[in-house]
Input
Amino acid sequence: MKIITLTTDMGLEDHYVAALKGSILSADPEIRIVDISHQIAAFDLSQAAYCLASCMNDFPSGSVHLIGVDSEPVINFGSPRHSSVPAILKMNGQYVVSNDNGVFSLLLKEDLPEGVWHVDDVLSNPNAFRFPAKNVLLPIAIRLAQGAKPEEMGTAVSGFNRLIAMNPTIETNLIKGNVIHVDHYGNVITNIDKALFERFGKDIPFTIYFRRKEYFIDEISNSYNEVPPGEKLAFFNQNDLLEIAINRGAKSRNGGASTLFGLQVNDTIRVEFLPPGSKETLDALFD
Output
C-alpha cells in the first residue's frame, strides 16, 4: 500500500494543496493521499509535529509523511549548523520527509531515530525553491512511497537540527505546564501527560488552575459526557495528554474552552497537589 500524508501551513483557500495532490496523482495514481492538516499556523513546527505525532501510530508501516512547513532549504556555508536541507527521518517503521528545520527533534522527543538522511542533490536547482514543498520535498516522498530506499536518495547523517520543546516543570507539589494545541472544537491540549501527573500519586487531591484563579478543576473525568452539557472538565485524551474542555462546547457554536477561558497556545496550566497530612487532606477525612 502506497500512502503519503500531507501536513502543511498552506490553508485551503489557495491552490497550493491542490498542486501537491495533483503532482502526486500525476506521478503515481495508485498512491493514497491523506490530509493530516493544512491549517497549521504559518511556520509553526511545534503544531505540525503535534498533529502528525498524534496520529502516526494509526498508519501502517512504510507510510510516508510530508511536512510542508518552513520547507525552503537554508544553506549557510559559513555555519553548517545553521543550515537546513531536505531530509528523511525513519521512525517506527515510517518515513517523514521535511526540511531539516528542527521538526524531527519535536517528533522524536527522547527517542532515537531509525535513520536520518540528507538529500543534497536537489539543492542544485534553486528554481525549485519557489515552491519547495512541491518541487523539492514531494519527489522524495513519492519515491519513498514507491519503494525506494532512503540511502538511494540521500546521505546518512548522525545528527539533525533540534528545537527546544516546551516541557512541563515540576516543583514541590506542583506541575507547571503549557497549552500546546487548541483543536477545532476549542478543546485545550496541554503538555502534561498522564505518567507525569500520576507520579504524584493516584489518590492525592489536586487542583488544576488556568488563566484566572477562579478557573479551576479538581477532578479527572474519563470522557466529555461525564459532566452536564456546558460544564468544564479535564481528562487525559487518547494521547494521554491533559485536556481541558467544555462538554458540548465548540468555538463555532457556544464557545469552547479556549474561548470561554481565554486560553491560547503557550498559556500556563498549573496543577497543585495537596500532600498527605496537609490541613486540606485531613479535613477531607471528616467531610
